[in-house]
Amino acid sequence: MTLGGDIRRVAPAEIWYKGAGAANPKTRRGGEGENERVLAMTRVIYDVVEHDGGWAYKVGDVYSETFPAKELAHAAAVRAAREQRTPGQSEAIQYEDGAGRWREETAKGNDRPETDVKD
After folding, report:
1. 8 pLDDT more than 70
2. Domain locations in the chain as residue ranges
């Protein structure tokens, strides 16, 4: 299964901690002073860029197909971002990691990233 087309890399998840105070932007107030790890959503950014004589959107180093107009690439990125956020069924997936090894894991259907489109 591929996510939103041919997306293989996403931005790292941001981790927040409870109880460490508001001075650090990577912390947020919580319980009785304990530092508790809170899982945060991954954020996937779709950048609309000039590419191969036209326009495309990209995530990390992966480009979409080329579109003749920026508006078409933007609309396609919005569509892909919306699909990326849509919950589905949990299922087994396979992917190639950064070292070229194939991995298998179960992708939870309700574990969807936050998405954004930037021009």
Report:
1. no
2. 41-113
